[in-house]
UniProtKB/TrEMBL annotation, chain A:
GO terms for molecular function: ATP binding. This is Sulfate ABC transporter ATP-binding protein. The gene is cysA. Signal peptide: none annotated. Keywords: ATP-binding, Cell membrane, Membrane, Nucleotide-binding, Sulfate transport, Translocase, Transport. Gene3D superfamilies: P-loop containing nucleotide triphosphate hydrolases. SUPFAM superfamilies: MOP-like, P-loop containing nucleoside triphosphate hydrolases.
Automatic annotation (TrEMBL), chain B:
Keywords: Membrane, Sulfate transport, Transmembrane, Transmembrane helix, Transport. Part of the ABC transporter complex CysAWTP (TC 3.A.1.6.1) involved in sulfate/thiosulfate import. Probably responsible for the translocation of the substrate across the membrane. This is Sulfate ABC transporter permease subunit CysW. The complex is composed of two ATP-binding proteins (CysA), two transmembrane proteins (CysT and CysW) and a solute-binding protein (CysP). InterPro entries: CysW_permease, MetI-like, MetI-like_sf, Sulph_transpt2.
Length: 345, 295
């Protein structure tokens, strides 16, 4: 089911959570709403579910206006950030809840409910835990129960609020892959909210970057990472070196002429340049303009702190490359940057 | 992250062998525990024993006679009636009030919370007087009520009103923090899953608060049966008609009828004991679920 959001605005007292947001979610895609806290992503998700009503705008679910509909009439599955499992019910009863509360005419028989719940528990690999209470489960298991519960009502859309936020790093990665695979299998239109750029880039078909109640950019993970539309997106997606420069004739001059970088985009005059750490090349040079102020090895990668005429930069490379270069803290070096994105200051 | 096990106590702090650094010396512990036990025995246990000892001083026959004479029976019945009306009423009010406070944001919420606490902060005598001033013969609605032929003060309705007022906070006070802590996530989940408001209330909200609710009702009931001050003002002390058990105890005592007074008092004491036992039994039997509902 496709979702069409247009002109949605939401204020909480004098705080504008959403400022005339337009967005289209295509049928069957997995879309990420990515942004820092307070960017309005969760509010947007809750408006889609009917848990919050906007001050203006329209929301079409499958081409039909849905803002007047109650949550129960929207056929959406919602997975809450802290799961919101019914603590007094077993896993089985949690998953069965959405079927049991249906009006008498639409309610499946108890044998049918049992069959469906069993099937869903198999899908989320929790069959042995049907009789347990939520308090007896790990975070990852609770998350999967929440997912099975949301899927039980056969929703047309699945909405997930920070689905992996409360999990530790390892479980988070596993569950991420598992969710991606699940989506590839059942192809339900899904929207998830996250503040973790890695999660959004790895999992989503398309990423919506939000900031201060507005959408900054919509695109595939590669598009938003390689071609950020704004300075905000550049800074938010991954590590970045940010420094002031002056652009003249397509060349950015940095640190009083210590470095010149070719740029695109026709910006002239004072500007801010963004360079990803892995786009920053380092070569040992005894008379180079920069000095290596520190080297930190993190797992297979190395982070190199560089001082360029008072400007702190960060480069990133794998350890093998570091070993080939044979550089150490305190050495002088030369820097070359192939790609820099500049935005007018 | 590997656990750092290399932290040891610095040599400069001497810790005697066989005793943890956080444990006090034996004599300090004995003194503290002994003091607490002595205090409890003196101020709680001894009076309780005294009540039963006094009640049974003339033997079980006299005890039984004191409890079965008509005025005592009327007092017991009246107490049960008043509790039977005011406890369910406060159960309803309490759930409604805590639902409002915990699940919604509205103007004047803090005022409401303060108002709920009012009966705790006001002397029970004042609580009774309020009703006399409102519904008494010379009260605000007094003449109107007289014309209508309705008697509130010095009758059962007055007793019930005063009792409801005094015991109002018990259920609400127990539920508000519990419901606030639980938030509305589960209710929202139920709504999205297709439950109606009514289904959500009965299937999600009530099961989550049932133990807190039971606690509140137990305490509310104990107070409703034991209330003296407010009830005393509105009762009029008509024997066999508007005397509840606590009032009956006072009358008997003032008449130097100690055995009968303590016999009725022993019933109230037993009520307190039963309340405590049920409360403890609940905690013991359903401790896990209680902890889970507060989780």
């Amino acid at each position: 089911m496709a979702i069409q959001v247009s002109g949605i605005t939401k204020r909480f007292n004098d705080f504008t959570a959403l400022d005339s947001v337009d967005l289209e979610v295509k049928s069957g895609e997995l879309l990420a709403l990515l942004g820092p806290s307070g960017s309005g992503k969760t509010t947007l998700l809750r408006i889609m579910a009917g848990l919050e009503s906007p001050d203006g705008g329209s929301l079409l679910l499958n081409g039909e206006e849905a803002l007047g509909l109650k949550p129960r009439d929207r056929q959406v599955g919602f997975v809450f950030q802290h799961y919101a499992l019914f603590r007094h019910m077993t896993v089985f009863d949690n998953v069965a809840f959405g079927l049991k509360v249906r009006p008498r005419g639409e309610r499946p028989g108890s044998a049918e409910i049992k069959r469906r719940v069993t099937e869903l528990l198999e899908l989320v690999q929790l069959s042995p835990f049907a009789g347990r209470y939520p308090a007896q489960l790990s975070g990852g298991q609770r998350q999967r129960v929440a997912l099975a519960r949301a899927l039980a009502i056969e929703p047309k859309v699945l909405l997930l609020d920070e689905p992996f936020g409360a999990l530790d790093a390892k479980v988070r990665k596993e569950l991420r892959r598992w969710l991606r695979k699940l989506h590839d299998d059942i192809h339900i239109t899904s929207v998830f909210v996250t503040h973790d750029q890695e999660e959004a880039l790895e999992l989503a078909d398309r990423v919506v970057v939000m900031n201060q109640g507005r959408i900054e950019q919509i695109g595939t993970p590669a598009e938003v990472y390689d071609h950020p539309a704004s300075a905000f997106v550049y800074e938010f997606l991954g590590q970045v070196n940010r420094f002031d420069c002056t652009v003249e004739g397509g060349i950015a001059h940095v640190g009083g002429g210590a470095l010149a970088i070719p740029t695109q985009g026709g910006v002239q005059g004072p500007a801010v340049a963004y360079v990803r750490p892995h786009d920053l090349g380092v070569t040992p040079a005894s008379a180079g303009p920069a000095r290596i102020s520190g080297i930190h090895v993190v797992g297979p990668d190395a982070r190199i702190d560089i001082d360029l005429a008072g400007l702190s930069l960060e480069a990133e490379m794998d350890r093998e490359r570091l070993a080939t270069l044979g550089i150490a803290a305190g050495d002088r070096c030369a820097i070359h940057i192939d790609r820099a994105r500049v935005f007018a200051r | 992250m590997p656990a750092d096990t290399s932290i040891t106590a610095p040599a400069s702090i001497p810790v005697p062998p066989g005793r943890s650094a956080l444990t006090e010396p034996t004599w300090v512990r004995a003194l503290l525990i002994g003091g607490a036990l002595l205090f409890l025995a003196l101020f709680l246990l001894l009076p309780l024993v005294a009540v039963f000892a006094e009640a049974l001083r003339r033997g079980f026959g006299a005890y039984w006679l004191a409890l079965t004479e008509p005025d005592a029976v009327a007092a017991i019945e009246l107490t049960l009636i008043v509790a039977a009306i005011s406890v369910p009423a406060n159960l309803l009010f309490g759930v409604a009030a805590s639902w409002c406070v915990a699940k919604f944001d509205f103007r004047g919420k803090n005022l409401l919370i303060t108002l709920i606490d009012l009966p705790f902060s006001v002397s029970p005598v004042i609580s009774g007087l309020i009703y006399v001033l409102l519904f008494g013969m010379n009260g605000l609605f007094g003449s109107y009520l007289r014309d209508m032929g309705v008697q509130i003060i010095f009758a059962v309705p007055g007793l019930v009103l005063a009792t409801i007022f005094v015991t109002f906070p018990f259920v609400a006070r127990e539920l508000i923090p519990l419901m606030q802590e639980q938030g509305s996530d589960e209710e929202e989940a139920a709504l999205v899953l297709g439950a109606s408001g009514w289904q959500t209330f009965w299937r999600v909200t009530i099961p989550n608060i049932k133990w807190g609710l039971l606690y509140g009702v137990l305490l509310c009931n104990a107070r409703a049966m034991g209330e003296f001050g407010a009830v005393s003002v509105v009762s009029g002390h008509i024997r066999g008609e508007t005397n509840t058990m606590p009032l009956h105890v006072e009358i008997l005592y003032n008449e130097y009828n100690f055995v009968a007074a303590f016999a009725v008092a022993s019933l109230l004491a037993m009520l307190a004991l039963v309340t405590l036992v049920v409360k403890t039994a609940l905690e013991w039997r359903f401790g896990d679920e209680l902890a889970a509902s507060r989780h």
